[in-house]
Amino acid sequence: MTWTAPRPRRTVHLTDLATLDERPTLQGWLTWHRETLLAKCAGLDGKQLARTTAEPSTLTLLGLVRHLTEVERSWFRRMLDGESVGEVHDGPADGDEGLEGVEPAHAERDFARYHAEIAACDAAAARYALDDTFQPPGVDVPLSLRWLYVLMIQEYARHNGHADLLRERTDGATGD
Fold it and tell me: Which pLDDT band, with edges at 50, 70 and 90, does 91 fall under?
């Protein structure tokens, strides 16, 4: 039987975020975007997830999942928490980690890695207050966890826009 990306169970609805305090609002928006990416992949098999559909771009849905696995790990675990963890996916450290080298046969593994990384990143973030700061290499000012949440929300928003187009071009599906 061919593996297909499962439909995520929505744990956050946008109306739930309307009256929350700042931290649950930021975490809620990030969770909503994570679930949106997974919803864009739901029901597709490895070949569909790894197919380029917006030529000449080589961007794929599976590449986005892999890339966001790397982005989450880099920011939350390496930079914020100071963990010494390597790359999840092989490839150049050029800001596009994970986008290249997708293999349809590894889609299930790549999704499992994504889910594991999200859990590890949420655990790392839970150890800090929004005003706690960290200073990544090459950055002249300290950054707060609050800043990191906003960065990750915009990263997902941008890539979910890509995922919208890639999914529609794959099988015509639109919407969340």
Answer: low
Structure-token pair, residue 156? 């997902």
CA pair distance 68, 4, nearest whole angstrom: 19
Query: Read out DSSP for 6-28?
Result: PPPPP---GGGGTT--HHHHHHH
pLDDT tens for 108-157 read 999 999 999 999 999 999 999 999 999 999 999 999 999 999 999 999 99
CA distances from 69 to 62, 92, 93 (A): 11, 15, 14
d(CA 157, CA 168): 17
Beta pairing, strands 133-134 & 143-144:
antiparallel
Name the token pair of 127: 């150890």
Please state which of the four CATH numbers 1.20.120.450, 3.40.50.10490, 3.30.1330.10, 1.20.1250.20 is assigned to the domain occupying 26-171: 1.20.120.450
What string of DSSP letters covers 68-129?
HHHHHIIIIIIIIT------SS-S--SS-TTSS---GGGHHHHHHHHHHHHHHHHHHHHTS-
Report d(CA 173, CA 64) in Å as an integer. Answer: 17
Please tell me what DSSP assigns to residue 131: T
